[in-house]
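Q: How would the structure tokens look for this protein?
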Amino acid sequence: MTLRRRLVLAQAPLALALAIVGVVSSVVTTRLGESSRLILADNYRSVLAAQRMKESLERLDSFAVFILAGHPKDAAQGIARHRVLFESELAVQEGNVTESGESDVTTRLRAAWTEYARRLTWYGTIEEQGQRDADYFSMMEPAFVRVRQLADEILAVNQDAMVRKSVRAEDRAQQFEKVVLVAVVLALGLGLLASTWLTTRMLRPLGIVSAAVRRFGDGDLLARANVQGHDEIVDVAGEFNRMADRLGAYRRSSLGELLQAQQAAQAAIDGLPDPVLLLDGKGQLEGANAAATRLLNIDPDRAAADPYVAADPAVRAVVDRLRAHALGGKGPYVSKGFEDAVRVAATPDGERIFLPRATPIYGEAGAVTGAAITLQDATRLFRFDELKNNLVATVAHEFRTPLTSLRMALHLCTEQVVGPLTPKQADLLFAAREDCERLQIIVDDLLNLSRIEAGRIDLRKRRVDPGALIALAVDAHEAAAKQAGVGLRVDLPAGVPEIFADPDRLQLVFTNLLGNALRYGPAGTDVVIRVRGVRPGQGDDRRDHKIATPTQVRFEVSDQGPGIAGEHQPGLFEKFFRVPGSQGNGSGLGLFIAKGLVQAHGGAIGVNSAQGQGSTFWFTIPTAPAAADVGAAG
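A: Here is the predicted structure in token form.
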């Protein structure tokens, strides 16, 4: 099995973990949806039928009063219509008996209604006014009260059942939440352990080769890489051993043997599946392996002319960048992630994704005499990463619809739309409602994360006044600041230019920064929001607020909290990173999303902090173009 296939296989446990999380989440949301549906199916229709029967009954009693007043003809049509309505709703109730005791009440309601309807028909035939007066109070009104009481009993039975089922649904939701949490932790934990174990096992031969190379470089010409297997690392180890043997022979032989060793080294490089380029001290192409020639269309035989003439422009650009880095004395260059990836469309195998690496070659005096550039083929890993992101986005998107239904059901219950609540029930429902809101925030963060990683951020830019933007952010967090006992202070000098941005997206950035500042700022202190115009590269000199023709606006959010240690600051804007020992229960995505939104505007984001001295998070947004420029662009 090739090394590439093994690396892909090492990621399979993580894919399985994500699939397990997706299945568990799907089952959980389905069960929660069924709980809400049962309340509507079993009880809501009976409650509605009881209310409508009461309305029709009230109308019938009103028409009976019409007869009592001596207007039987005026009441006849209304009585007929509302008798039909009452009968239809009673039939609905008889077909929707779901609770204990509800059948008996429904049967008694049917009997009482039949008696009332019979008396109402007889009452309409009485012509003597005196008899009407006596019979209304002795016969009609008691029958009316009996039917209304039974309708109230049906209404009470179903309302009580809805409350009980709501409580059970809440308990089930909490149980499902624990199940999802346990499934996520177990699946991801086992997936990470399995992936780490597989990766370590597969890369162990590479460590043996590395140790042998290091010993050989230190002068131990007897060092060899003894690796067993059938993958590329074994091939490299074998070629290294042959190269070492021939180099040792060169030390004891003539120039001809030196050429043979050079050819062996070239064969070792050609055996690598990834493109490798060798540059001399002037940056000229000195050699390339077979993979570089086949995949990148680089012709080492045209080194004196232009070996990159047939290569993709992206390849030329990345080679120039790595050459400047390695030959400029900046040391090795290692890709940070897929954001450094190079796409090459025109290869014999279709589009390929490469991660660039560069290693300087040093001479005996320590001077840089060349560089080796490797373009690691990470196409399958990139596709797997895309699959992972799509799976996360799909799961988050599928969460939204059932979560919205659950939030609406909890809202109706907490607002007592479906019936009164006891204080204990209200407390439990409000707690569930807060958990739903927190889950909604996590789902929104996951959706924003997927959009940022896919490069699909939809910005609706327009000219925005920084003062108005800050005012909205302060208004949105004023209540939270009062609750935390922290003041909000704005430092906005005159003359700050407008910015060209999407205000809704920037409000998300302020929500993350201000939320963190209020969370960690001690009570009795102030969180300060500063705004000023700057130019790129101006630095952090806050004393100079009057910048001639600023091209960016810098926003700062400062708190007087515990600060952030220097070793933790580089990871603040990475996904799922949280400072060890920090408070709160966030997802670790807020600052990463803020960074993506700011960079989508063409700005930058960062932090200035020290342990025990508070923190200042800042970001910059380009200023709005002049009106003439906007018109020209249009």
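The longest helix spans residues 129-217.

Residues 540-545, 630-634 have pLDDT under 50 and may be disordered.

Upvote if useful.
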